[in-house]
């Protein structure tokens, strides 16, 4: 009799159920499967497996001739490790195993599975640069450590421990990762009794009742013979049913004769499918890219302890019942430890475009799909990068604004600058992740040479698509604000973006004489004031820097001029120069309030050498000195203009102009360098 027929017979003999039109079969692509021999209508029960037939850690606890071995293992190892050793023990003693018919249908250890544990060197290159590559290395090290610990215990027992090889342990662990169900989804809460088969004194398998110890109340993996032969499809409408004694599978969709009878494992991404099951789904709608944030600067972590304590956990071996109190108890010499950054909790997921499609309610679709906690962290990084104090604004703490970026900062006057800045931070993160993968593209074969390589390519391509789509969507956010900045009805508002040309055009309308003085100075020192020619010659960023400093000097001169005697304050001006309500004041005030306030204070105190001589990065200082040489040359040619103002300094150019261009500038295809004003 075929092994599949024996397993069906075994299931029914011990109280299980398999629909009359369903048979165990072997598929060339998926291996053992369930197949319909006739059409099956919707809302049909397919299979029911008694809990007593399942195979898990609980079976190792059943009293029997070799119970001492499992007691020794369970006293020192986690339930998942005991499960693997118990399955391995059944495999090594298959002729005497209660689950003989089931184990005979499993993939053999020599054939293995299609997970990375069974990849050859030629296969593994397809995972270079991906998260799965590192996840596999981490899992392999963890499994080997647990196998070594188990074997050391087996050596002390009267058992042929040499048979429990690393290869067989990987096989047993792979059976569980690819076929098991989680106990917390199957067993009723606070269960106190469980049925399992054990050997009696005569060597026969008998049904007995167990009272699991407290340690077993944590979730663990369970194998359900026959039920686990049903393969995964995310489009199938499957229902898992539970009662006091059994686990059942029903389908709500029709199954045609000859088709596989599929199960639905849930919304699993390709990295999880590849690591645990050994396959991937092209165009998987639940695919995603994981983003794990490493430890953050202390000032940000201190804020996050208030707003997002779930991102932290107690240090190892800590016994405090309240990890978020750092004060010491009266009379105690030790303090309660502060929580430490939890990498698992700080892992966020960027879903694929198919999953995000249709979920947008505003013009920033990428951010709609991101965790509000991730957005909050990125805003803090934005503030810290620019030297801005973290906001005490409650919108970053609680309420609906923290949940929806469209309702919060997006609608504020300074929202454009903040959101564009955060978008650029995210673009850098995603671009780095993308480069980490694609740097190996030239070393890969033109096409996969086997099924394992094919699945790895599906996963790899999916990661690249998600990252590229995310970068594209974030770029569209920046483009949106740039287009808004070119709208005449909106370009007077702060937080819009401009090209150098549009900024100077707006400046010409607001301050014709000062615009003329600025461009004349450029003509004197650079030979031309034609922007297209200057940008083609590589002067675009420098002219932006000079102009940003120029408008700051202009506003500073207005507010600090004394009786019109300050040099540069009584330069040629037209009657339509408006000092009270123009783009210049709006731009400078916006930047002053929202950008580098502490640096601005240092620049204003230019006459105090100790205050003004802040630390300026060497490269930026060199650029500042280079541009100041141009300023001095222009001042000689235009001594009554702002070029000759004493407000010009290395600190102003480096800490104001250069940094705004660095942090607020965006290279945009077809537009050049745009800056958020």
From TrEMBL:
Entry protein name: SET domain-containing protein
GO CC term (a single one): nucleus
Domain of life from the UniProt record: Eukaryota
Annotated Low complexity bias: 315-328
Gene3D superfamilies the record matches: set domain protein methyltransferase, domain 1 (3.90.1410.10)
Region (Disordered) residue spans: 311-336
Single GO term (MF): protein-lysine N-methyltransferase activity
Record InterPro entries: SET_dom_sf, SETD3_SETD6_MTase
